[in-house]
């Protein structure tokens, strides 16, 4: 079980969404037993159940929170989980060493006349800022790059993983993207970023992949900094809020037949992109994903260039593919096999 953990630093009253993969007895043990939580709603996505409840008593909240933590820790003490934790710690430490080594090498070989990459640009900014602030420093560089690795690699790779699953399930959509790419680009060169605005169907297809794949089902937890009201709902200061992105992407009041894979919903009769304001795989607002434009560019280039060169299909045409997904921090497709033939 895991949950979106509230951080208790002061008074807290609010709602929390808990996501559990093992809910047996969960409500009995932690909610109805303790008056501190008022259970509001339970819902299910795939194999995962989600509980939304309100916390109305700070004292109790602290106590219950501790119990939930203990419960979680007990689970972590299982041997397999302990191994997982060690694997994660080791991976983190390897990544940290790798990045530290690169920052050191960049400092040693720094040449202001030859700025090669992000670390060089960071070093320039660090020099410019050093007289005014101490915000940009060695530790900040490390954590910034770690953030980019942690938040930017699995999300982007997983979305690509989904994209080819959809393409082998819908060969007609794949073919239409390929026809568009061939018509606009021709056989002789690779697709560039500047081609994107001429490839509307391919763009709409990727939007539909985002909408139905939901690599990030939830955002990162946020806290209301003051009392506020949204759509008539009172949200007291300090409420932990975990927006649920999939609920927007499958909302029947926004999308016709929301469960159907249909890139056409993002195009009008003149082949212009429409409805993009309702698609929020990177969340919305001031704390939305800062990697959005990088991710969109990477995804477009990789997806369109691979479709340009290869035809993707199921290994066994009769195989029934699963679109349920496995939810962890991101939601990944279940393992699947595909065939790639040169076009
Ligand atoms: C398909 C790819 C990606 C998806 C679906 C995605 C999605 C998200 C979502 C939903 C959030 C939470 C926003 C919120 O809490 O409201 C987020 C946060 C974040 N993302 Fe991405 N992301 C992707 C790629 C990237 C890339 C490439 C980078 C950087 C290189 C990145 C860096 C971050 C960071 C640093 C945050 C935390 C922002 C904060 O705390 O304010 N992401 N992302």
Automatic annotation (TrEMBL):
Q: InterPro entries under this entry? A: Cyt_P450, Cyt_P450_CS, Cyt_P450_E_grp-I, Cyt_P450_sf, Cytochrome_P450_fam2
Q: Which GO terms describe its molecular function?
A: heme binding; iron ion binding; monooxygenase activity; oxidoreductase activity, acting on paired donors, with incorporation or reduction of molecular oxygen
- Keywords on record: Endoplasmic reticulum, Heme, Iron, Membrane, Metal-binding, Microsome, Monooxygenase, Oxidoreductase
- What Pfam families does the record point to? p450 (PF00067)
**Membrane topology according to the record:** Peripheral membrane protein
User: Which residues hold heme?
Assistant: 289
rRNA-binding is among the record's keywords = no
Gene Ontology cellular-component terms for this entry are:
endoplasmic reticulum membrane
- The protein's superkingdom reads Eukaryota
Localization recorded for this chain is: Endoplasmic reticulum membrane; Microsome membrane
Primary location = endoplasmic reticulum
> Which cofactors does this gene product need?
heme
The family line of this record is:
Belongs to the cytochrome P450 family.
PANTHER family, A to Z? CYTOCHROME P450 508A4-RELATED (PTHR24300), CYTOCHROME P450 508B1-RELATED (PTHR24300:SF417)
Name the chain's protein.
CYP2U1
């Amino acid at each position: 079980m895991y949950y979106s953990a509230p951080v208790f630093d002061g008074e807290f009253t609010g709602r929390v969404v808990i996501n559990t993969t093992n809910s047996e007895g969960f409500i009995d043990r932690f909610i109805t037993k303790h008056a501190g939580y008022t259970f509001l709603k339970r819902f299910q996505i795939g194999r995962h159940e989600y509980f939304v409840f309100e916390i109305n008593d700070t004292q109790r909240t602290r106590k219950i929170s501790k119990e939930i933590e203990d419960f979680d820790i007990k689970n972590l003490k299982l041997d397999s989980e302990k191994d997982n934790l060690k694997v994660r710690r080791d991976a983190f430490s390897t990544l940290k060493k790798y990045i530290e080594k690169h920052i050191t090498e960049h400092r040693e070989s720094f040449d202001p006349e030859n700025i090669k990459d992000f670390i060089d640009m960071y070093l320039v900014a660090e020099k410019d800022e050093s007289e005014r602030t101490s915000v940009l420093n060695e530790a900040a560089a490390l954590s910034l790059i770690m953030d980019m690795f942690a938040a930017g690699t699995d999300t982007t790779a997983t979305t690509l993983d989904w994209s080819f699953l959809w393409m082998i399930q819908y060969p007609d959509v794949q073919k239409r993207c390929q026809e568009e790419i061939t018509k606009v680009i021709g056989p002789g060169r690779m697709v560039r970023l500047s081609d994107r605005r001429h490839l509307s169907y391919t763009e709409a297809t990727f939007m539909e992949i985002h909408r139905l794949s939901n690599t990030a089902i939830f955002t990162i937890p946020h806290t209301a900094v003051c009392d506020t009201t949204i759509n008539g709902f009172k949200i007291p200061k300090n409420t932990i809020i975990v927006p649920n992105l999939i609920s927007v992407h499958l909302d029947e009041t926004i999308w016709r037949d929301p469960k159907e894979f249909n890139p056409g919903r993002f195009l009008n009769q003149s082949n212009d992109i429409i409805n993009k304001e309702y698609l929020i795989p990177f969340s919305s607002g001031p704390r939305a994903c800062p990697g959005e434009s990088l991710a969109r560019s990477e995804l477009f280039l990789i997806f369109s260039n691979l479709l340009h060169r290869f035809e993707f299909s199921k290994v066994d045409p009769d195989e029934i593919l699963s679109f349920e997904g496995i939810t962890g921090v991101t939601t990944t497709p279940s393992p699947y096999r595909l065939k790639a033939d040169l076009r």
